[in-house]
Amino acid sequence: MAQEIVKQSVSEDEGTRPGRSYRPNADIGEKADGVWLTVDLPGVDQDSVEVGLDDGVLTIEGCVALGEYDDLRPLYSEYNVGNFERRFRVSNRVDSNGIHARIEHGVLHLFLPKPEEARPRSIAVAAG
Amino acid sequence: MRLHSYDPWNALLRLQNEIERAFDQPHFGSGLSGRGAFPPVNVFRGKEGYVARFEVPGLAPEDLSLESHGRTLTVVGKREPREPSDGSLHRRECWSGEFSRSLQFPEDADTSQAAAECRNGVLTVHVPQREESKSRRIEVA
């Protein structure tokens, strides 16, 4: 399977920040109790990532540390360095208070739990 | 009054412009396996030598190994795919699998003295310039 690793610039809407932002790659899956996402944010640490859920839109923003590029002159480049930004429309069936996020080795792990009533359940059948 | 304070956004724009210029330049060394390979790398010239930065999200230092041979530096590693134990996968964009990438440095790079660190999914390799090829100030008697 061909895997795209070239970063795409965020272009759907006008940005409010100077500089360009890039769209991070994401894996998304669903389990019985919720939806999980992993988002690649290389160069972003715990203090530089923001996750928000507003009106059904999940926003992920990550800032890279630019100080590490002081006094460095690019000779050869395969990827752009810039901040990350991506939005996802999330189903209403998410318990927004229970969202869990953690970042490890430049990967953001998010878990969006489903509210109790939206989870599948098995119903015990009693013998008459 | 300070008229020119440090503006990180200007720094970001400048870096992006410089990187874009480097995209147009001929390949660094001849030993690169080319663009589109994982992990992508940027190579910089620093004060003390060369700096290579690989984007390796999801990899811990122990998932990576580096080897130098002559002017060539090879990075080997593996990123495990995120396989859900149950449920379904809706989207897969993140790269996973085994990789090996080699970079060939110029003559004046001393790959035997290379040092590497991996933080926040970015592997940084510092390759110093050979002592004898550093420019020196010569006193005139």
Task: Summarize the helices and strands and which ones pair or pack.
The complex is a heterodimer of chains A (128) and B (141).
Chain A (H helix, E strand, L loop, with lengths): L7 E2 L11 E3 L2 E6 L2 E7 L8 E6 L2 E6 L10 E5 L5 E7 L10 E5 L2 E7 L15
Parallel strand pairs in A: 2-8
Antiparallel strand pairs in A: 1-2, 3-4, 4-10, 5-6, 6-8, 9-10
Chain B lengths: L7 H16 L17 E5 L3 E7 L8 E6 L2 E8 L8 E5 L4 E8 L10 E5 L2 E7 L13
Antiparallel strand pairs in B: 1-2, 2-8, 3-4, 4-6, 7-8
How would you characterize the overall build of this protein?
Chain A is mainly β and 128 residues long. Helices cover 0% and strands 42% of the residues of chain A. Chain A has a five-stranded mixed β-sheet with strand order 1-2-8-6-5, with no helix packed on it. Chain A starts with 7 loop residues before the first strand and ends in a 15-residue tail after the last strand. The relative contact order of chain A is 0.25. Mean pLDDT of chain A is 84; it is low at 1-5. Chain B has one helix at 8-23; strands at 41-45, 49-55, 64-69, 72-79, 88-92, 97-104, 115-119, 122-128. In chain B, the strands form two sheets. Chain B has a four-stranded antiparallel β-sheet with strand order 1-2-8-7, with no helix packed on it. A three-stranded antiparallel β-sheet of chain B has the order 3-4-6, with no helix packed on it. Strand 7 (73-77) of chain A pairs antiparallel with strand 1 of chain B.
